[in-house]
Design brief:
Layout: H1 2-17, H2 27-31, H3 42-48, H4 52-58, E1 63-75, H5 79-85, H6 89-100, E2 116-119, H7 122-138, E3 143-155, E4 162-177, H8 180-193, E5 197-199, H9 200-205, E6 209-211, E7 218-220, H10 223-226, E8 230-251, E9 254-275, H11 287-293, E10 296-310, E11 316-323, E12 328-331, E13 337-340, E14 343-352, E15 355-362, E16 366-368, E17 371-373, E18 375-383, E19 387-396, E20 404-412, E21 415-423, E22 426-436
Antiparallel strand pairs: 1-3, 1-22, 2-5, 3-4, 4-8, 6-7, 8-9, 9-10, 10-11, 11-14, 12-13, 14-15, 15-18, 16-17, 18-19, 19-20, 20-21, 21-22
Helix pairs in contact: 1-6, 6-7, 7-8
Amino acid sequence: MIFQTRQFCIACTMAFFISSPALALDARSAALGGSAIANGAGAHGALENPSSLMRMKREQQNFHIHLGLSTDIQDDAGLVDIALDNESLPEDLETEIDAISGRTITCAVPSAPETVCLNDTQRLGNLAGTVLDILNDIDNKPIKATAAAEFGVAYAASPIPIALHYRQSVTGRVQSDIEDSDTDYVDTFATVLSDDQLTFNELSTAVPLTISDDGTTLSVQQPEDALQSDAQSSALIREQLGVSIATTFQIAGLNVDFGITPKFSELRSLSLTTAIGERFDDAAESLQDQFEDNEVIDTSFNVDLGVSAAISGLPLRVSAVARNMITESVTTKENFEFETTPQLIVGGAFELGALTLSADLALNEAKVDNLETQIMALGVELAKPLFGLRAGVSHDNARTDDATALSLGFSLGPLHLGGRITDRQSAQAGVQLAFGF
């Protein structure tokens, strides 16, 4: 039965990790802390800010190809650490529960309260104490993740430069709602067994532990009969195709670049609320079947608008992007709603030869497939033809925990690696191949 609990935890973990987005950036952008709208490059730069296509055209960067993978994990509950630190806990619990169930008690019925009815119980008591700590740590604390695989191509030699973007992504969330009765159930094992013995008084008052009908063996209330807690999980799988075009207008003596990216998506939304106790029942429907039964398929249309301008007499470029200008909403069969809402971002890039300083500021909080974000980012890039170094710092006003992150990355020819990290509970990473000629 404990083995089934482990299967349940693994399934929940995989539900969000294979789940692949919207907050995840490409490797170069991630290394710059996310400061990309005025310092974009290549096909992915056109996705960040479609007006950057005109800069490529002026610099005679005629053709770009981009292949990328990225992921963003927000682990408020510290489940990653819990899993790493308690890898053998499920097997240990299974062994100890099997060992104590059906054991012969050594006291008569009735006996004096302090009479010892069972010895060698400390191992299970200590394990139950560990489980109790974990339940308290994860209660109502979500773990969220997003990951993406994407391909892009840009062609800037035509009168109107164009870029195509294809992305597959999944955004997932898992959160537990631990009932007080479940913590009481586990706490009983931790309290009455940790002193390595079970007295008649403890046996008489501990609800999960009773004397079997034969009067000589121990009976244990099974988890599937006791546990009432729920786990809520959700995932949004997005398949998106975008097309960026750009042009230039002269305004007040400045060449101002404008770009637009219409985006068409197929959305597959899933949500599931399942009782943890069901995972102990061999006859219960599998998690995979339950997810498939709850799948909803929908389509959406959205659009990004971008603008950029180089300031005369200064090595400074300023930009703004209105992202996801149309609010998207999709609801699962369990009435769980995924939302994507508009966001306005402003940014700048200051170029000093091979060195570029960049900054982005999101002016409002927004949701992207239900993940909230409002980034302030600073980045620095040293770019050479065959080698590049990048670093950055960012702060996400939409996060209550792990909001500030440091970024690092580098490139070797067409290979780019980059990531942002606060600690083991929250990280973002990307790898990409980007070609331009």
